[in-house]
Amino acid sequence: MPTSAPVSAQKITPFIWYDREAEDAAKLYTSLFADGRITHVSRYSEAGRDAHGQPSGKVMVAGFEVAGLRISALNGGPAFKPTPALSFFVRLESEAEVNALWEGLGEGGSVMMPLDGYPWSRCYGWLQDRYGVSWQIAVHETAAQGTTITPSLLFTQGNMGRAAEAIELYTSVFPGSAKEHVELRGAADGEAAGTVLFGSFTLFGQQFSIMDAPGAHDFGFTEGLSLMVSCETQAEVDHYWEALTAEGGQESQCGWLKDRFGVSWQITPTVMEGLMASSDRAAADRLMTAMLKMKKLDIATLEAAARAQT
């Protein structure tokens, strides 16, 4: 797929897995950002109950937006939890804003790195909130940049040292991509020399950051925080699915996959959102039933299911 393809509105949506707290989490996050808003709420129906195990009427997905970034929160049950391997890096204009967000997100959570001055920031901290979602919070080193939120990938355990490889893969797969700043560890870092201390890149014009993490860590990537790619056509679905499952990636159900590093992605047709939000609940139920039978999603089959065609 050509990297010169036009870049549209946000195409990659961070997707957080909760047990039953998705709506509460969305309300908390949107209350802590000046421009925060809940964009949509969908609910489970009877269709597929044997697979998803959730009662009809329970919130399935709460979509929200903070600092211009759209995020989705799923009530998926206890199977998966977010880990610090995929966090949100928030930069704010003042230390007062950093302190306020730190307090709001930190209540009931745990501190990974205390809020303090560090060589890379005069005011930075890393925490897990009460739901287990990880946030890195810092002040902009230059003023007048507003609030920004960047998904950040941390490569640990067997993935340590593969961050540069991941940058190459992701920027080769998605249009509107660019490798930006990459800082490598020096010779003084011993066995970690040459690994990524900090890197940044864009996909579809969206910014991401990435780091290798030497040392012992008891976490890696999980389905607890995935990246959902919105696709207009079946050709897009096919391209991303094939590229991200290649060379050690794994197919899963309902449009989910893991790439060779274990990062979870959802390759999702944009038509799904409209079909799932339909006031025709029978059509939405047929759509859910069809989707639960698939690995890679097929747009024509999903549309036919919604229209009750076989």
Averaging pLDDT over every residue, what do you get?
Answer: 91
Counting helices, strands and paired strands, the structural category is: alpha+beta
Report the principal-axis shape: globular
Q: What order do the SSEs take from the amino end to the carboxyl end, as H and E?
A: EHEHEEEHEEEEHEEEEHEEEHHH
The value of Rg in angstroms is 20 Å
The end-to-end distance, rounded to whole angstroms, is 31 Å
Number of strands: 16
Spatial strand order of the main sheet: 2-3-4-1-13-16-15-14
Share of residues in strands: 25-35%
Characterization of this structure:
It is a single chain. With 310 residues, this protein is α+β, with helices and mostly antiparallel strands. The chain has a domain at 272-306. 24% of the residues lie in helices and 35% in strands. An 8-stranded mixed sheet has the order 2-3-4-1-13-16-15-14. An 8-stranded mixed sheet has the order 6-7-8-5-9-12-11-10, with helices on one face. Strand 6 and strand 7 (121-128) form a beta hairpin. The radius of gyration is 20 Å and the shape is globular.
Question: What are the main properties of this structure?
Answer:
310 residues, alpha+beta, eight-stranded mixed sheet, 8 helices
In short:
The chain is an alpha+beta fold and 310 residues long.
Secondary-structure blueprint:
Layout: E1 12-18, H1 22-32, E2 37-43, H2 49-52, E3 59-66, E4 69-75, E5 86-92, H3 95-106, E6 110-118, E7 121-128, E8 134-139, E9 148-155, H4 163-173, E10 178-184, E11 196-203, E12 206-212, E13 225-231, H5 234-245, E14 250-251, E15 256-258, E16 264-269, H6 271-276, H7 281-291, H8 299-306
Parallel strand pairs: 1-4, 5-8, 9-12, 13-16
Antiparallel strand pairs: 1-13, 2-3, 3-4, 5-9, 6-7, 7-8, 10-11, 11-12, 14-15, 15-16
